Amino acid sequence: MSNEEIIHKLKPIITTYAPASAALENLNEESDFIKDLNINSANLVDIILDVEEAFGITIDNTSMEKMLTVKASIEVIKEKLSEK
Amino acid sequence: MIPKEIIAILPYSKPFLFVDDIESINEDGVTGSFTFNPELEFYKGHFKDHPITPGVILTETMAQIGLVSLGIFLLSAEEQTFKGHVAMTSTNVEFLRPVFPGEKVTIISEKIYFRFNKLKCKVMMQNQAGDKVCYGELAGMFIKNANG
């Protein structure tokens, strides 16, 4: 799965939990969930649970802690998909 | 951890402790109760000459029993105790009936999930007649102290 395909799948998940903003409209690899998208840590947990379901993967605590940007999330998703 | 131990380490004290008893608790949920003392300060102002328990206090009571007590139980199963603090992160509650001074309420909470230190529960409050007072979904984060 390419980075673009992953972002395409991530965007609706993130949109569910992030307040509307220009940063959300322009979601890209550099987007930071907390700083740019105003997502709190509780909503970040919900995003990760939805990511698990959407991609059919299980995310452990260590990986979860890395997932603070779209770029880091793509890396974790790719890593978990390759382990399947 | 037994109910008495959980109540003892709850991070609240009077006049903001809204847990009297935990009747049952396991990894899927909790049932507990609280009686609203008519002397509680907020009855003087909510409402003037017409005391009714504020919805925010009912929500807080649901959270202390349904979310925080259960979270401490779940975390203590992993680590014997809980050192840290708690932050409520979302509430979505519907209110059906008023709770007057002196009423005893029972809170029944079912875990929806507990992942990455976020606990989300389906919580219901009923009065002594067994009527549903309010219900909804509450979530909170359990933040561990950096030094354990």
TrEMBL record, chain A:
Q: Where are the bilayer-spanning segments?
A: none
List the SUPFAM superfamilies hit by this protein, alphabetically. ACP-like (SSF47336)
Q: Which domain of life is it from?
A: Bacteria
**Which segments constitute the Carrier domain?**
1-81
**Family matches, as InterPro entries:** ACP-like_sf (IPR036736), PP-bd_ACP (IPR009081)
Q: Which Pfam families match?
A: PP-binding
Designated name of the protein: Acyl carrier protein
- Which source organism does the UniProt entry give? Pedobacter psychrotolerans
